């Protein structure tokens, strides 16, 4: 069904244009939560960035004392192959074959263990290098051993409205001010330093201030390397090279130095521009550290440090970088969704929830607006196991962009489904022998290759995600272009979903699995069949795919409908839904199954009511999860997902409590704390928080009243520019 022109215009307005008389004082609310520090936090940086690039700073506004990372969406490298192995061995790699209902299906795990390990660790995401202040002995030029404890009056703040980070502190009696901003269209920072110590000759001081650049080695075996990335140890100096390139003296591009960093086959260029003439020298022939000093007497220096994978001919100047930050951030805050929970609310919890929302909105744009789906720790570090991205987490990382109406940011990465379509068709049909469809990878990198690992290959809840992203895009842009753009992805996604479902002649229904892994990854894959959440998601997804074909005016493939209407019923044990069909009756008391993501509450919460879902049973199931699950072993998006289940059940008080659960914490700058088994930051938690709060504030299909997810009393919720959840 097509919308009338009038409705279309109305929807378009709702989804993309803000009322010019926006009632919320956005600037006041954003400013209220300005992060500030008086000392470095040893585990999280203060960050600036643009979604494809981010720079993490200690209290000096740089990476002077703590080597927080400079990360990008494009900075990847491969380690050397194991000795005596060639790239041919990589191309030849074949994993094991497991039976899927009597048919052998080949996966990317097992087989050649050396190559399997290399494929897991490669490519890996690099730290582009660090930038910090260096304190030199004025007379000898030797580096003085200065630590943070030698500084005083340290104050740092991050202006969220402009993306400008300001740090001020004193060394002995001299003040040093550092202002750092990130470019918005390129991977560059501007750094302005104001201090008399830059100009030692006019003062009688023993210390001269300079800037250092340093480049670490990184390899894919560095797992759980948070909070830092890369290795600066001298033992690894010879594993990589850096070279100070000659700059043409006739160049008027403002470029004053360029350093080539080579790690195995990957090359990275760091280009330095400066407001004053600088002298860049290598600290020693073997180290990868360089010192920058102004050549003339000055109290101020403005540098631009630009990171690239090809040698740039020009880089922006510091004013341009700073202006781009101001413009982009102001546009972001003004031209997308906004929630004011605070003004007029009497509930004391509103303040902390508002803080989490504002800081998460900032950090999502810095870390989770890449050209590819983000990794769990965004551009802060490589804290999670893989350094890669996980397509099943993509929903939690990025679906909130749809509800908050940040389509430009979402489209950077949602195009991944187009880019990965060919390899996913090959995975499904050529490698695994399914008659049709595309099977999306789980853990992957910009090439779309599926990383080895049983779970990586046997998880299935990543499969329906594109159907949901497409649906949201159509709701915001109900146009033929949107229908056409997603048509192939939808067709092949649903094709594989329908052929993966296996017709069971003894029960006359379509089964999901075995083999497969459930959301919580904690059941045995060869016995896991008909898991409740995945069945519901399959029905929901196939329904969206059918509706898409109808909107396109095309026939709905009969396989989709047959499967959707004859999928196995959701498994029920003793009055509640069960993780999967045939799981032990008393699984609610078995520690093996009541840890980790409680997807059972997603049946009605994360998902809307799906065909065949009994709301009474779903509610009993959610309540049983709330009462019995081992939450000490839950993390991140589990808590917003629990809040969404509470909200859909009109348990609004609980919904708020889940969002503020003691095990779901955000630090002083809004970094989502990981968990027992999970490094910090764990950004799916932030994305889920924004998804849940948008849903609770703006509502969902069929919800009633204003801010239906928030308690009736104590809360005054104002939402602007948000879209409803499905
Ligand atoms: C930092 O110091 C200032 C001034 O001494 C103080 O007002 C502020 O509360 C401190 N901030 C933090 C985060 O400790
Ligand atoms: C790493 O190697 C793989 C396999 O040869 C290749 O497809 C990929 O492009 C390489 N990536 C990088 C960043 O070099
Ligand atoms: C290198 O690999 C070949 C073929 O796998 C093997 O025959 C040879 O012994 C290996 N050489 C070394 C030094 O490991
Ligand atoms: C699953 O079954 C396959 C045979 O199809 C077997 O090779 C594999 O070891 C089994 N895995 C587990 C975890 O039982
Ligand atoms: C630098 O000073 C700190 C304490 O001020 C000390 O722990 C450290 O060992 C010193 N480092 C060097 C290289 O002297
Ligand atoms: C550094 O910043 C502080 C606070 O903004 C200011 O009071 C001081 O004058 C600045 N110092 C210099 C050298 O600009
Ligand atoms: C560094 O290079 C050496 C010599 O090639 C190699 O043996 C070693 O494994 C490398 N170290 C790391 C951490 O990559
Ligand atoms: C640059 O620094 C080096 C090392 O400190 C010094 O030898 C050289 O004279 C400096 N060059 C200029 C032009 O200042
Ligand atoms: C439809 O399903 C049947 C039975 O699973 C399968 O043989 C056939 O290839 C499927 N057709 C398509 C287009 O997926
Ligand atoms: C069935 O559920 C009831 C009520 O929650 C509980 O008391 C009973 O122990 C359960 N039975 C089994 C076999 O788990
Ligand atoms: C839902 O389940 C409850 C409890 O088992 C049952 O009483 C009710 O009839 C079911 N509702 C529907 C529509 O099947
Ligand atoms: C939700 O509960 C409130 C009372 O807490 C009630 O006023 C409201 O009507 C309920 N809404 C729905 C949709 O059931």
Explain what the structure shows.
- This protein is an alpha+beta fold.
- Among the domains are: 10-77 and 124-320, Beta-galactosidase, Chain A, domain 5 (Distorted Sandwich), CATH 2.70.98; 92-121, no CATH class.
- 30% of the residues lie in helices and 19% in strands.
- The chain contains 20 helices and 28 strands.
- The strands form 9 sheets. It has a 9-stranded antiparallel sheet, covered by helices on one side. A 4-stranded antiparallel sheet has the order 9-14-19-18, with no helix packed on it.
- Helix 14 packs across helix 15, helix 14 packs across helix 16 (558-566) and helix 18 packs antiparallel against helix 19.
- It is globular and about 90 Å long.
- It starts with a helix and ends in a 6-residue tail after the last strand.
- Residues 1-20 have low confidence and may be disordered.
- One 2-acetamido-2-deoxy-beta-D-glucopyranose is lined by residues 435-436, 495, 498-499, 559.
- One of its GO terms (molecular function) is hydrolase activity, acting on glycosyl bonds.
- Keywords: Glycosidase, Hydrolase, Signal.
- Residues 1-22 form the signal peptide.
SSE order and pairing:
Elements lengths: L4 H12 L9 H7 L3 E2 L8 E4 L3 E5 L12 E3 L3 E2 L9 H6 L4 E4 L2 E4 L6 H9 L2 E2 L4 E8 L13 E9 L4 E8 L2 E9 L5 E7 L12 E8 L26 E5 L9 E9 L2 E9 L3 E5 L6 E6 L5 E9 L9 H17 L3 E3 L8 H19 L21 E2 L3 H5 L1 H4 L3 H8 L1 H4 L1 H11 L11 E2 L9 H5 L6 H12 L3 H21 L1 E3 L4 E3 L20 H21 L5 H9 L5 E2 L2 E2 L37 H14 L9 H11 L3 H8 L24 H15 L19 E3 L6
Antiparallel strand pairs: 1-10, 2-3, 3-4, 5-8, 6-7, 9-14, 10-11, 11-12, 12-13, 13-20, 14-19, 15-16, 16-17, 17-20, 18-19, 21-28, 22-23, 24-25, 26-27
Helix pairs in contact: 6-20, 13-14, 13-15, 14-15, 14-16, 15-16, 18-19, 18-20
The structure holds 2-acetamido-2-deoxy-beta-D-glucopyranose (12 copies).
One 2-acetamido-2-deoxy-beta-D-glucopyranose binds next to strand 5 and helix 3.
Keywords: Glycosidase, Hydrolase, Signal
Organism: Lentinula guzmanii
GO molecular function: hydrolase activity, acting on glycosyl bonds
């Amino acid at each position: 069904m097509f919308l009338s022109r009038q409705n279309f215009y109305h929807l378009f307005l709702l989804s993309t244009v803000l009322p010019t008389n926006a009632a919320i004082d956005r600037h006041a609310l954003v400013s209220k939560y300005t992060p500030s520090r008086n000392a470095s936090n040893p585990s999280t940086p203060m960050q600036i960035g643009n979604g494809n690039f981010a720079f993490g700073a200690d209290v000096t506004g740089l990476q002077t004392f703590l080597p927080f990372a400079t990360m990008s969406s494009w900075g990847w490298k491969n380690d050397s192959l194991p000795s005596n192995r060639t790239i041919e061995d990589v191309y030849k790699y074949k994993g094991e074959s497991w039976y899927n209902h009597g048919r052998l299906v080949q996966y990317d795990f097992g087989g050649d263990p050396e190559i399997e390990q290399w494929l897991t660790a490669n490519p890996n995401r690099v730290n582009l290098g660090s930038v910090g202040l260096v304190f030199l002995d004025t007379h000898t030029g030797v580096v003085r051993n200065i630590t943070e404890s030698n500084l005083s009056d340290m104050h740092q703040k991050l202006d969220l409205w402009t993306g400008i980070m300001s740090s001020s502190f004193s060394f002995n009696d001299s003040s040093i001010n550092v202002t750092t901003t990130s470019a918005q269209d390129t991977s560059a920072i501007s750094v302005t330093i104001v201090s008399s110590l830059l100009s030692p000759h006019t003062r009688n001081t023993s210390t001269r201030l300079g800037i250092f650049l340093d480049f670490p080695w990184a390899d894919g075996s560095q797992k759980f390397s948070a909070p830092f990335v890369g290795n600066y140890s001298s033992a690894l100096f010879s594993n990589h090279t850096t070279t100070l390139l000659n700059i043409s003296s006739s160049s008027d591009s403002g470029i004053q130095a360029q350093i080539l960093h080579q790690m195995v086959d990957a090359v990275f260029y760091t280009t330095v521009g400066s407001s004053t003439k600088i002298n860049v020298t290598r600290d020693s022939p073997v180290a990868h550290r360089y010192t920058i000093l102004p050549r003339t007497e000055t109290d101020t220096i403005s540098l631009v440090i630009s990171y690239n994978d090809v040698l740039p001919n020009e880089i922006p100047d510091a004013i341009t970088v700073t202006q781009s930050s101001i413009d982009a951030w102001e546009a972001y805050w003004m031209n997308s969704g906004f929630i004011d929970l605070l003004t007029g609310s009497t509930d004391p919890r509103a303040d902390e929830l508002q803080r989490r929302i504002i800081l998460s909105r900032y950090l999502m744009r810095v870390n989770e607006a890449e050209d590819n789906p983000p990794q769990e720790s965004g551009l802060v570090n490589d804290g999670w196991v893989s350094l890669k991205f996980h397509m099943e987490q993509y929903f939690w990382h990025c679906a909130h962009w749809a509800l908050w109406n940040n389509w430009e940011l979402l489209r950077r990465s949602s195009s991944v489904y187009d880019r990965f379509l060919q390899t996913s068709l090959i995975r499904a049909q050529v490698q695994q022998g399914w008659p049709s469809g595309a099977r999306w990878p789980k853990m992957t990198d910009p090439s779309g290759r599926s990383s080895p690992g049983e779970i990586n290959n046997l998880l299935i809840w990543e499969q329906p995600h594109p159907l949901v992203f497409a649906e949201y895009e159509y709701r915001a842009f109900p146009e033929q272009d949107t229908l056409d753009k997603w048509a192939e992805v939808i067709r092949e996604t649903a094709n594989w979903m329908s052929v993966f479902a296996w017709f069971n002649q003894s029960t006359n229904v379509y089964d999901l699995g075995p083999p497969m892994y459930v959301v919580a990854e904690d059941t045995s894959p060869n016995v896991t069949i008909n898991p409740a959440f995945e069945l519901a998601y399959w029905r929901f997804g196939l329904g969206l795919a059918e509706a898409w074909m109808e909107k396109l005016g095309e026939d709905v493939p009969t396989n989709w409908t047959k499967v959707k209407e004859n999928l196995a019923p959701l498994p029920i044990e003793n009055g509640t839904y069960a993780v999967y069909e045939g799981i032990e009756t008393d699984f609610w008391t078995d520690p093996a199954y009541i840890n980790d993501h409680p997807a059972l509450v997603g049946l009605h919460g994360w998902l809307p009511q799906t065909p065949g879902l009994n709301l009474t049973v779903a509610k009993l199931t959610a309540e049983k999860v709330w009462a019995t699950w081992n939450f000490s072993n839950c993390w991140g998006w589990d808590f917003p997902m629990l809040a969404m289940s509470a909200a859909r059940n009109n348990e609004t008080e609980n919904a708020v409590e889940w969002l503020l659960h003691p095990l779901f914490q955000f630090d002083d700058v809004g970094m989502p704390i990981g968990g027992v088994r999970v490094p910090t930051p764990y950004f799916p938690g932030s994305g889920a928080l924004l998804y849940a709060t948008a849903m609770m504030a703006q509502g969902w299909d069929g919800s009633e009243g204003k801010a239906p997810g928030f308690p009736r009393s104590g809360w005054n919720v104002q939402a602007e520019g948000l879209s409803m959840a499905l």
